[in-house]
Amino acid sequence: MKEFKHKREEQRKNQQEVKKFLDYALKRTGHQPKPMVLLEHTETGMKIIDGKQEIHAKERNFTEQHMGKGRKEWYIKNGTMFEGFQDNPQGNGWRQRIQFGTATEADYDQIPTQLKAVFHEAKVCKNKYGDTMSGEMYGDLFTAPITLEELKTYIKRTKKNTAPGKSGIRIDHIAALPEKLQQGIADLLSIPYVTGLGFDSWNDEIVNWTPKEEGNPDINKRRPLMYYEIMRKMHLGVRIRRILKVWLTNGIVDEDNYAFLTGKSTMQPLMIKKLILEHARHHNNTLTMIDIDF
């Protein structure tokens, strides 16, 4: 696979060079490079963070705070995890009662008040026919191995040349493999489905902080982009459309959920809002964004 990976990487680099030239020739706005200087608001004023190592150190600290460093973990007391989250008969029983809506007041008393509503909504939903959703409704989606045809279909519809995870493997590399090696990838992705076991390396994630506003070096004016291992994304991506089909067939997903359904985008409701506001302004209406609730 390494040979095909290197060949595909060279092709990708050549494509990137061509794109840079076309962007320059057509005067298109290219990708903005990561800032080499950051600004941070402190109690004494504005602090300049300069230098690669200094920026990386600040970003590590910034990421730790973003991911909850120092946050009180309600589910751990005196070094012991809350029984409901433990992998034992008592924990399994607690989670099943939450899942099937049979939890008692004593079960909910173990959850912080501000989180009780979340666990109340965690129970299994009912479909449009009034039947409680069950594993049988999904058929063999989560137990059958991934076929080569499934993998090929997924690769065809998936966007290429996206940022890789820690391993450096891209979807482009897998797309460039001969059929025999693609079958090996399909077999590898099937292991969690047929055995219930996962891969530790899939848990590695990369956080990259990108500016919210172009040209603004304020450290607080950035958003995190998470880069996952491509194999981890493929594992679920191969089956996601079939899962969505089950949800749509049973009517448990609102068709107005533009942020999730295939073929829809959050841009659509935004455009609807924009058109409503433009119409309101044209007719001197006092309608505002706050009046429009989706």
Could you explain how this protein is built, in words?
This protein has 294 residues and is mainly alpha-helical. Among the domains are: 2-31 and 137-235, no CATH class; 82-124, no CATH class. The protein contains 10 helices and 6 strands. It has helices at 2-25, 52-66, 89-99, 105-108, 113-120, 148-157, 171-175, 179-195, 230-250, 267-282, and strands at 37-42, 45-50, 76-77, 80-81, 205-211, 222-228. A two-stranded antiparallel sheet has the order 1-2. A two-stranded antiparallel sheet has the order 3-4. The chain has a two-stranded antiparallel ribbon with strand order 5-6. Helix 6 (148-157) packs across helix 9. The longest helix has 24 residues, at 2-25. It is globular and about 65 Å long. The two termini are 48 Å apart. Residues 287-294 have low confidence and may be disordered.
Please give the oligomerization state of what you see. Answer: single chain
The DSSP helix count reads 10
> How much helicity do the residues have?
40-55%
Low-confidence stretches: 287-294
- N- to C-terminal distance: 48 Å
Q: Describe the strand arrangement of the main beta sheet, using strand numbers.
A: 1-2
Order of helices and strands: HEEHEEHHHHHHEEHH
Please tell me the overall pLDDT.
Answer: 84
Gross geometry: globular
Strand percentage lies at 5-15%
* Largest sheet geometry: 2 strands, antiparallel
Number of strands: 6
Rg over CA atoms, rounded to whole Å, is: 24 Å
Structural class assignment: mainly alpha
